[in-house]
């Protein structure tokens, strides 16, 4: 023990034995929703998961996997694989998204980080461009964060700044855009008074310019690209407030759908196209509507629309928007630093650990599980195996993915007797669900279920324990719905496919011949979520969880 009194040694659980092999299975994108033809998990043949669900009710539970349960700002925020695995592994809830940005801005750390250092290289000769939603709605971005970023960037050497804003009217009242633009203009004039060449360069409504999501409509991103990068739009103004007022009146559209415009000088030239040597920051903290513009700004190989001119820039996101794609590769605010994860505790208490998935989710069952940390805690006690994912095809082409191979590796690890914990991620429900192909997603769910069976059969053979759970929803609802839950139709009368994650709860199932007969799920945990799983797993290994972990989901009842 150090002088602080901290110890890695976990106390023994008073009632649960040590020495049982525990399989931890994470079904990616596997939530619980009402049973209709758009619920691929329901439609698919999934006898193994069905038997867990229909088995003992005290061994099956639904937990929250989105919003505040995984550290996101609000319960309108769907979960994702990164924050989900952070919570599963850490056993506590850490701030993600907006809160992280607030902390980094308040401490000034954001201006010392790798991302800012990377874009700062351009400040001497180039322009800093800031692209994002101008609003205090707090869902995708916040005006006060932009203001702190503007002041901090100029204090740290940015001599020329151009803002490309998107008007909101969705998370805030329609019409409020005018006030936000006036506020921004006032801030920029104060910077100009200090000798910084700062002004607005372009604008447009969020639903019509730049902020599309899930590759729904690349034309939205192209309209933004043309205005922001090329400095081209059919509407040109010398003043941004006038631009918004005029376009609202003339086109009779609301803030969300304002057409793109560029700000021009007296000779009708755009004041802020993005050119070689410039720096670009997308300042939204929420990821879903930034991924597409990030791809356009970052990828050399890009075929979604003709970019015409691709400037050599230094680009950073406010955060990393996609942990699987590692997109963008530079970002101003790093994910939370998570110490004392369950994985590290267990290894330090002698639990030999095997973790496996295929490429697309390998990082989740290792890096994100271990608190955004690479590598082993103790390579003498751990083995991580990555199975290469199919590449060059979309996942609906081979929806079984590598589920069988992952299950075989897990089975072999369980039967080898060399490991106390065998942890896997089965990506099918999520990766195939994202393609929007319902038939393929049904095949994917069946494949994942078969993989679970293989792992549970191995646990049966060694007298072990299993925990089957998920990181967020996806495959259980594949259609967009109206407020009353009815499927939405497009102009042609076809259903609108939902390719995103969902807000649905996910299952946690426990069992196996090694499970103490008195173990059952508690009913007194308020709003159980993914973060409660870590303490549960520690208990099943025969340990009490650290005092500051979210409470365990299980109790032991005397028979």
TrEMBL record:
SUPFAM superfamilies: 2,3-Bisphosphoglycerate-independent phosphoglycerate mutase, substrate-binding domain (SSF64158), Alkaline phosphatase-like (SSF53649). The active site is at residue 81. It is found in: Cytoplasm. Mn(2+) 1 binds at residues 430, 434, 501. Its cofactor is Mn(2+). Keywords: Cytoplasm, Glycolysis, Isomerase, Manganese, Metal-binding. Belongs to the BPG-independent phosphoglycerate mutase family. This is phosphoglycerate mutase (2,3-diphosphoglycerate-independent). GO terms for biological process: glucose catabolic process; glycolytic process; response to blue light; response to carbon dioxide; stomatal movement.
């Amino acid at each position: 023990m150090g002088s602080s009194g901290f110890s890695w040694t976990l106390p023994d659980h008073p009632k649960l034995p040590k020495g049982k092999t525990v399989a931890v299975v994470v079904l990616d994108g596997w939530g619980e929703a009402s049973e209709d033809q758009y619920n691929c998990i329901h439609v698919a043949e999934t006898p193994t998961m069905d038997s867990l669900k229909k088995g003992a009710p005290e061994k099956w539970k639904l937990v929250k996997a989105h919003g505040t349960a995984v550290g996101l700002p609000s319960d309108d925020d769907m979960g994702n694989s990164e924050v989900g695995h952070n919570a599963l592994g850490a056993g506590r809830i850490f701030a993600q998204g907006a809160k992280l940005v607030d902390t980094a801005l308040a401490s000034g750390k954001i201006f010392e980080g790798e991302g800012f250092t990377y874009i700062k290289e351009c400040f001497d000769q180039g322009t800093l461009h800031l692209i994002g939603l101008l609003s205090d709605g707090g869902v995708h971005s916040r005006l006060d964060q932009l203001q702190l970023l503007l002041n901090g960037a100029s204090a740290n050497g940015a001599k020329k700044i151009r803002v490309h804003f998107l008007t909101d009217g969705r998370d805030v009242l329609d019409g409020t855009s005018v006030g936000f633009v006036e506020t921004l203009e006032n801030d920029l004039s104060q910077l100009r008074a200090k000798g910084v060449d700062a002004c607005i360069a372009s604008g447009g409504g969020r639903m019509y310019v730049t902020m599309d999501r899930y590759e729904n409509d690349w034309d939205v991103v192209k309209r933004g690209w043309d205005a922001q990068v090329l400095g081209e739009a059919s509407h040109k103004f010398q003043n941004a407030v006038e631009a918004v007022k005029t376009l609202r009146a003339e086109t009779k559209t609301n803030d969300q759908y304002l057409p793109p415009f560029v700000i021009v000088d007296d000779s009708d030239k755009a004041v802020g196209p993005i050119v070689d040597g410039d720096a670009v920051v997308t300042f939204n903290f929420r990821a879903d509507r930034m991924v597409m513009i990030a791809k356009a700004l970052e990828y050399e190989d890009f075929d979604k629309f003709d970019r015409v001119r691709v400037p050599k820039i230094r680009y950073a996101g406010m955060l990393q928007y996609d942990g699987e794609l590692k997109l963008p590769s530079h970002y101003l605010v790093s994910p939370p630093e998570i110490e004392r994860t369950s994985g590290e505790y267990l290894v330090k208490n002698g639990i030999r650990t095997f973790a496996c998935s295929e490429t697309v989710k390998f990082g989740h069952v290792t890096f994100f599980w271990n608190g955004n940390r690479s590598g082993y805690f103790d390579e003498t006690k751990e083995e991580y195996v990555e199975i290469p994912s199919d590449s060059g095809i979309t996942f609906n082409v081979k929806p079984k993915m590598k589920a069988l191979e992952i299950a075989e590796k897990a089975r072999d690890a369980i039967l080898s007797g060399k490991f106390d914990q065998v942890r896997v991620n089965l990506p099918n429900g999520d990766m195939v669900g994202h393609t929007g192909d319902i038939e393929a997603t049904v095949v994917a769910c069946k494949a994942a279920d078969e993989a679970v069976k293989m792992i549970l059969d191995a646990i049966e053979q060694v007298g072990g324990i299993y925990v089957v759970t998920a990181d967020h929803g996806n495959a259980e609802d594949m259609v967009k719905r109206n407020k009353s839950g009815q499927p939405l139709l497009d102009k042609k009368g076809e259903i609108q496919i939902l390719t995103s994650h969902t807000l649905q709860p996910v299952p946690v199932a426990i069992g196996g011949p090694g499970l103490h007969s008195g173990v059952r799920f508690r009913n007194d945990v308020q709003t159980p979520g993914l973060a409660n799983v870590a303490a549960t797993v520690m208990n099943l290994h025969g340990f009490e969880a650290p005092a500051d972990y979210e409470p365990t989901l299980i109790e032991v009842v005397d028979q």
